[in-house]
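dumping this here before i forget
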Amino acid sequence: MSVKSPNPIDVYVGSRVRMRRLMLGMSQERLADQIGVTFQQVQKYETGANRIGASRLQTIATALAIPVSFFFQQDASQPLTTERLGHLAGLEDLSEFLASKEGLGLNKAFMTITDGGVRQSVLRLVTSLANAAESDLPRSPAVADIHFDQSN
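structure:
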């Protein structure tokens, strides 16, 4: 009997649940209590092992104080599509980073910056530091060429 691998969209949605939960500093147990399941079920949702039904996703969104659309967005302008899932290869690294104390702190601090120009400067600084630390690796255009809407 072969083990069925999770659907990539279920994995992505679960990672967004985990990311938001961690951003709020909420435990799996607390989220489980708020949505009426066990913490083991929350673990399965977050890994994509169990698919989240529509009504449960609405309940999770309410508990995490976000719109349901948050779970399906890859960026601020485009909804999740299976064609773009190939670009999510680093998703595990992102989840691991956001679960770390440093990643969570950096993300929370960055999100408080409302000026798009300042955000862009911070990104250039971090990219420059990363490039200096790993000068023998090629520069990553995906990170270095990110631009923020400066209308904020």
